[in-house]
Amino acid sequence: MIRLLSIVCLCAFLQVDDTPRSALLVLEKAQNTLIILDPVALKIVGRVPVGNDPHEVVVSDDGRTAYISNYGAFGGIGGNTISVVDLVAQKPLPAIDLGALRLPHGLAFAAGKVYFTAEGAKVVGRYDPSSKKIDWVVGTGQDRTHMVVVSNDANTIFTTNVSSATVSIIEQSAARIPGPPPPPAGAQPPPAGAPGPRGPPRADWHVTNIAVGKGSEGFDLSPDGKELWVANAQDQTVSVIDVAGRKVVQTLPSTRSANRLKFTPDGRYVFVSDLGGNEMLVIDARARKEFKRIPLSGNSEGIVMSPDGARAYTTLNSRDAVAAIDLKTMTVAGEVKTGRGPDGLAWATRK
Length: 351
What we know:
This protein is mainly beta. It has one helix at residues 2-14, and strands at 22-28, 33-38, 43-49, 54-59, 65-70, 81-86, 91-97, 104-110, 113-118, 123-128, 133-139, 145-150, 156-161, 166-178, 198-211, 216-221, 227-232, 237-242, 247-253, 258-263, 269-274, 279-284, 289-295, 300-305, 311-316, 321-326, 331-337, 342-349. The strands form 7 sheets. The protein has a 4-stranded antiparallel β-sheet with strand order 3-2-1-28. It has a 4-stranded antiparallel β-sheet with strand order 4-5-6-7, with helices on one face. A 4-stranded antiparallel β-sheet has the order 8-9-10-11, with no helix packed on it. It is globular, with a radius of gyration of 22 Å.
């Protein structure tokens, strides 16, 4: 009771203002905190404590709940929880216990469910908020299954596997459970209602692993769903994958230490952040060549696009700040200081 009261008091102390209807969420990785930020005024309106070593954050479709992966890499076998935050009340809710699924990292919210990677188990999992259960897990067989993106119909899941230098494409397909063998010739037919040679249909999943560059980490699916672009930090390249063909069709030069990669909402440009330099690389997605490098005041990490296509936001890890980039002028429109270690970003639009 005393601990719960302390958390409530801390949240009240951290809250500065009401959560705006459209909010930018920022993780302070070194402080185990989620920032709620007004993306237009570049003003912090609240902070909420989360779990140990938070890396990525996603938001429910109604914009009211945030989910944060607690990687916990700096203590023993790693973390195994996903923090849950009420964005309207600006307070933590009970965390999701992942059990043996250690080192959760990448997150996606699709079809009302939370998809997550667990590097320690080499899997992608799915959590159902309505039943409060993990209802699906598929292994990739790859090392450091890191980030995750889910198709609009939730039938295809994409992951990057950093240490295996691969991308996994996990697809749902129809299959049938094998039933008993057919009776021999001349035997009596089975009684009514008995299972036939093949059982009822069920969902099955197939994993295709595609080789990309070393250090494959940040990636994004093009808005039309036809291409997957992958940032390869160690190779300083970007791999372009044809989704239908399941193959790399082009490899482009990138930044010194590419970390995250995002398409603009119109699909025209691709932004690549750089942990090793002070520039944001912008690639023309149609021409498949460098368009511009935007000077920044520090090295960049997380990237998120505003849904209206007006701005991109990136965390400046070495500066403990977030920069807003005007997508019309391709210049920095402003900065806001954060706490230590800003990393993952997400956009929340409350409905």
